[in-house]
Amino acid sequence: MKTSLIGYPRVGSLRELKFASEKYFKGDITIDELHRTAADLRIRHWRRQQENGIDFIPSNDFSFYDGLLDTACLFNIIPERYQALGLNPLETYFAMARGYQGEQGDVKALAMKKWFNTNYHYMVPEVDDSTTIRLAGTKLLDEFLEAKQNNITTKPVLIGAFTLLKLAKYTEGKQADDFVHETAEAYANVLTRLNELGAEWIQLDEPKLVTDLTKEDLVLFTKLYSRILSAKGNVKVLAQTYFGDVRDCYQELQSLPFDGIGIDFLEGKQSLELVRKYGFSDDKVLFAGVVNGKNIWRNNYHNTLTLVQKLNGQAKQLVLSSSCSLLHVPYSLQNEAALSDGIKRYFAFAEEKLHEFAELKKILSHADPYSTELYRQNEVLFDGTRFAGNETVQARTATLTDADFKRLPAFVEREAIQNAKFKLPPLPTTTIGSFPQTADVRANRFSFKKGSITAEQYKQFNFDKIAECIALQDEIGLDVLVHGEYERNDMVEYFGESLDGFIFTENAWVQSYGTRCVKPPIVWGDISRSRPMTVEYSAYAKSLTSKPVKGMLTGPVTILNWSFPREDISLKDSAIQIALAIREEVLDLEANHIEIIQIDEAALREKLPLRQSDWQAEYLSWAIPAFRLVHSGVQAETQIHTHMCYSQFSDIIRDIDDMDADVITFEASRSDLAIIDAINACGFQTEVGPGVYDIHSPRIPSVDELKQGLFRMLDKIDGAKLWVNPDCGLKTRGVTETWASLRHLVQAAKEVRETL
Length: 756
Ligand code: GLN
Ligand code: ZN
Known about the structure:
Among the domains are: 70-201, no CATH class; 409-753, TIM Barrel, CATH 3.20.20. The protein has 28 helices and 23 strands. The strands form seven sheets. It has an eight-stranded parallel beta sheet. The protein has a five-stranded parallel beta sheet with strand order 19-20-21-22-23. Helix 23 runs parallel beside helix 24 (615-631). The N and C termini lie far apart (73 Å). Bound molecules: glutamine and zinc ion. Residues 432-434, 485, 491, 552, 600, 602, 643, 645, 728-729, 731 line the site of glutamine. 5-methyltetrahydropteroyltri-L-glutamate binds at residues 15-18, 114, 119, 516-517, 562, 606. Its cofactor is Zn(2+). The active site is at 696 (proton donor).
């Protein structure tokens, strides 16, 4: 049985590429040095795969920033404004990725979006009037040759034509259809070049095929590939899909002359059923995604063997593959010295997944795979003895009733009670929670982690910061204050570290975008709260002012979405456990006289299933109740806020209202406020605070500009429902612009109030 990888992580085992790139951006190393680091990493990663007997090793999965941006550049999709800078190709590439400000001009970066249902982000290719799509770059060919020179045969990978055209953005009046011909020619050219270089296979990634497809989409897909595949020559073409099943185009994939089809059998719920129902063409190779590219648990060999058996009856030629690129898992367990072997044996990061492929290959070559030692060693990992479940948690979840998910009294009654209690002015002003994490804040945390200061010293520093922050908020006249979140490294990691049941890693970084990596915690066991996590800081902040201070928590759905989840229980069950733990914190805050509590669900929207038909049943039906469970126990007087990043939730607006918070703030300054129309259309009850200024730049908005923003909102929203706040993320800003901007915000709110 042969094995294939869809892609390998590229930032390096210790984020070497990130650090080299950042040095290059600062001018500390030359472009040649950056290229050397990149080449070293590529070769090292190929060798690792070769050593583990991977038969289909990907090349061109390397990227300095993002694979879709590479694809756009390869095909000359470089908007005029970047070309006009007159930079060299790599500089132009980075200008598209990060924006450019310098002697040659001033341009913003391309838009960035979430890559399907992952926490990875891609740069949105922009096809403008001046664009001619054609094969213009050589990266794909260069990396194939680079591997070849190192005696490594690779399968070059490229984002496919359909996914490229579907994810790109077009100038007014243009659409994907207008570029079918050019695009197909460009891909055909790639095939011609690969023929000349003697490549055996090419992998074209088409994850867009696992989403809901229209008839027009199928026409577009067929048109593109009828032309592209006519240029195959001796190169075999693998249509690689992942993140779901291909129920809308299974037959099209079968009937087009692809040589291989890559199907995800882990996230693709209907994948097996499709293969069974429609069969699998004898002249194609089935690349079966069985090793999870998205999670860090060991592969369950029993499940894999069972699946392979079923597939063997259907497909003549079978290759074992990862379910998606390993880009979405960390590099290696070798970097986790602090984790015991007893724990590590349950995990497989990218490198350990290579070992799994090697083992599966061995096992499958055996006449009786189930009798092999490797199989047995794996089997014991899944015998249910991994950890002792928490009986209290299990008992509590077992006794939950509908009443636990419903806050009483109803919103309208609460709103009146809270208005009478808080007596806030119209258009109350607040912020989303964090304040600048300046160098001293980070140094304090770092010193504490290192052990060079005591817990008391560490805390005292945070108390001083809080006092300073409260005094300033009071002074500039904000209505609802926050403590500033100085104690938090990250809104998920902080809670993960304080809750029981999570595991933390030292170096398990996963690329989020460009040079930015995240280190998601691992849900290991049943989640519970053994001690208050935020009460002390919040209560201290409250003691310093007569104004209300918001307690600040992260919600269960966001904590779960930004962690590696368990595979032995459902996401729903994990979410409920986390919700119960956060609920205890909510009740503790309330008992300590924190009258307003914000429960952030920054990541609620991003894990919506890729197909709309799955939204309710598979996600919203538990995610929204999990949120309600967190706050359903508070008094009517206690005001519950929530916050969501991005404002693109028009399509789930009723579900958001159903979270039954009293106030929702959201990131909105960079959007067209279309969300507010959706809010009006559905009779949204929750009070709203759309961000009035963008905090992603150091620019200080003027009072007039903020007033205009507020008037625009008031055109659409009842003044009695509107809150005034900036977008989220003040922690990433500098001190000066933060306070200057907030002063303007308070002033603008005051002036607009007068006109109501
Ligand atoms: N309360 C968090 C903050 O202000 C929210 C972060 C977020 O929206 N991602 O930083
Ligand atoms: Zn946010």
